[in-house]
Amino acid sequence: MKIIIGLGNPGKEYANNRHNIGFKVIDCLARRLRVKVDKAACGCLLGEKKGRSLILAKPMTFMNASGGAVESVVDGYGPERKDILIICDDFNLALGKLRIRRGGSSGGHNGIESIINALSSERFPRMRIGIGMPQTDMDMADYVLEDFEKSEEEKVEKMIKTACDAAGMFIYRGIVAAMDKYNNFGIEP
């Protein structure tokens, strides 16, 4: 069984925020795999691919409290940690960059920190998607809750599709194949 969890904030007002890129990747995967992510369970919206033992999840907690929902999904479905992929934004990566890791620290990401605390472990795969840094001295909490600029939209769409490809690689070929092909992958302007 594989579980792909995209992080974001629930609610229409957050739908296109930088922080919700994880939800966008889950939506892309759901379309490709023809999975409806609409079952409310474990503090998430879930979708299941029949016959492939694949769960797609969008925690319906706010980003900084993602750990409880992730823990509920893990407890409910019982996958090995290596078979979970968490997808989130990262402002320390340039817009369009991907970084996939088997585990590690939160890197200052509150959603990942919440998951680490809930699972009592840093050992779970994650894909960080670069949203870039603000051009001004803006508060980072405000920045991640902003929508992408119009000038960034084309790059963001390509980035979502590439992250979806990388998640597919994780599902069908594993973390090492996904890391080898997509780590530090960048979308050119």
Please sum up the structure shown.
The protein has 189 residues and is α/β, with parallel strands linked by helices. 37% of the residues lie in helices and 19% in strands.
Would you write up a description of this structure?
The protein is an alpha/beta fold and 189 residues long. It has a single domain, classed as Rossmann fold (3-Layer(aba) Sandwich), CATH 3.40.50. Helices cover 37% and strands 19% of the residues. It is built from six helices and seven strands, in the order βαβββαββαβααα. It has helices spanning 21-33, 66-77, 110-119, 140-144, 153-173, 175-182; strands spanning 2-6, 39-41, 44-49, 54-59, 84-90, 98-101, 126-130. The protein has a seven-stranded mixed sheet with strand order 2-3-4-1-5-7-6, with helices on both faces. Helix 2 crosses helix 3 (110-119) and helix 5 runs antiparallel to helix 6.
CATH topology (level 3) name: Rossmann fold
Mean pLDDT metric: 93
Instruction: Identify the strand order in the major beta sheet.
Output: 2-3-4-1-5-7-6
Q: What percent of residues are in strands?
A: 15-25%
CATH homology superfamily: Peptidyl-tRNA hydrolase
Query: At CATH's second level, what is the architecture?
Result: 3-Layer(aba) Sandwich
**Helical content class:** 25-40%
The biggest sheet amounts to:
7 strands, mixed
What is the SS-derived class? Answer: alpha/beta
